[in-house]
Amino acid sequence: MKEFHSFGWYAARIAPHLPKQAFKPVPSRLFGGLAYFLIIIASFVTIIFFDTNIWINLLLSFILGSSFAGMGFLGHEILHGTVVRKPWLRDLLGAIAFWPLTTGPKLWRKWHNLTHHVHTQDEENDPDAWPSMQKFKESRLMRWMYRVPFWIRAIASFASLAVTFTLHSMKMFTVYVKEFNPKKQPSVWLEAVLPWATWIGLLVWIGFGKWFFAFLLPLLIANFIVMAYISTNHRLNPLVPVNDPLANSLTVTTPKWVDVLHFNFSYHTEHHLFPGMSPKFYPLVKEQIKQKWPERYHEMPFGKALVALFITPRVYYKDKEFIDPHKGNLFGSLGNGMNPKNLSIKKSKLKLR
Fold it and tell me: What is the rounded distance in angstroms from the CA atom of residue 163 to the CA atom of residue 145?
C-alpha cells in the first residue's frame, strides 16, 4: 500500500451509501446480553448448589467462559455508544457487561476508545501495538525471551492468551489512572476494585473447588476467546504513520452463528471505520469497502489468521515486516508481502546482539 488515508477519509465516502438507521443506537442488542446473563446465573446456581461431577462442571465452565466473552463483546459495543447514548446508562450497562472480565467502563473508554482507536498501530501511542526492533533492543526481557527456540515461544504465546486480557487490563489501569481528573479517580478505582471484590467474595463463600469452575477456569476461557480476536485484529498488520483502518486492521471471517454469538466482533476493519455504529450494520460497510477498495481490504478466515499469528514473530522490522531477531528470519505483514496461503520467510543478516 503506497498511500494512506485516515478513517474519516474512508467514512466520508461510504456514509452516503448507508441507511440512516445505521447511525442510530440499537437498544435491542441488549436482549443478547440478557440471554448471556441468564445463562451465567443458571450455570452459577448449578455449580454452587448442586454436586455435579467434573465433566458437567467442565461443560458449565466452558459455557460460562463463552458467556463471559460474549458479554465482553457486548460491553465493547455498549461503551462505544452504539446501544444506548445516555452516558450514565451506557457506563452502567458497560460495567455489568465487563464485570466478568474485571475491567471498568471509564478505564476502557480511555484506553480503548480514546487512545487505541485514535492511534491504531502507532508504536509510540497505541497501547496495544507490538514493538519495533528499536524497542526490542532496549528491552532486556524481550532479548532474553527471543533466545528461546521459536516453537517454544509460539506455544507459550498462544497459551498466554488465556491470561493476557486480564493482565493487560491491569497494566492499562496503572498507566491511565493517573491521567484522570483527580475528582474522577476514586470512581475509576471503584470500578476496578468492585468486580474483583465480588469474585474474591464468591471464593470465600463457595470455596476454591467450586470457584475454580464458576469463575477462574471460565475467566481463562473468556480471555482466550477475546484475545484470539484481539490478537488477529492488528498483529498481522504493519505499523503505520497514518491511522488507516484498511492498512492497520484485519477482518476475520467466521460462521454466521459465531458472528451472532459474538455480536459481529469479527468485522474489525469496519469497526475502525465506524466505531460509533452498531456492528449490526457492519456487513453493509464491508460491501461498500469491497466495492470501492478491494485491493486494500484485508480479510482472512479466523483459523488461518490464528495460524499466521502462530508462525510469525511479533517484533517489527522497518514497520512493514516481522523479524525473529535471533535467527534473522523476516516475514511480510498484510499488504506488505504476507500471503495467508504461503507464509514465506526471507533470510536477513540481522542477528540478536
Answer: 18
The answer to whether the CB of 84 falls within 8 A of the CB of 98 is no
- The type of residue at 26 is V
> Which uninterrupted H or E stretch holds 169?
helix 161-176
Within-domain flag for 176 = yes
Task: List the chain pLDDT tens, one digit each, 353 residues.
Answer: 568 999 999 999 999 999 999 999 999 999 999 999 999 999 999 999 999 999 999 999 999 999 999 999 999 999 999 999 999 999 999 999 999 999 999 999 999 999 999 999 999 999 999 988 888 888 888 888 888 888 898 899 999 999 999 999 999 999 999 999 999 999 999 999 999 999 999 999 999 999 999 999 999 999 999 999 999 999 999 999 999 999 999 999 999 999 999 999 999 999 999 999 999 999 999 999 999 999 999 999 999 999 999 999 989 999 999 998 877 889 999 999 888 777 777 766 665 55
**Does residue 147 fall inside a structural domain?**
no
Contact 104, 192 (CB under 8 A): yes
Q: Give the count of domains, the chain.
A: 1
> How far is it, in rounded angstroms, from Cα 226 to Cα 228?
5
Lookup: cell for 91: 457506563
- Cβ pair 36, 67 in contact under 8 A: yes
* Domain interval for residue 195: 7-133+157-310
Q: Is residue 348 part of a domain?
A: no
In this prediction the pTM is 0.94
Locus of grid cell 528499536: 134
Encode 11-35: b = buried (16+ Cβ within 10 Å), e = exposed: beebeeebeeebeebbeebbebbee
Q: Give the residues across from 329 on adjacent strands.
A: 324, 347
Q: Is residue 352 part of a domain?
A: no
In degrees, rounded to 5, the angle at the alpha carbon of residue 296 between the alpha carbons of residues 295 and 298 is: 105
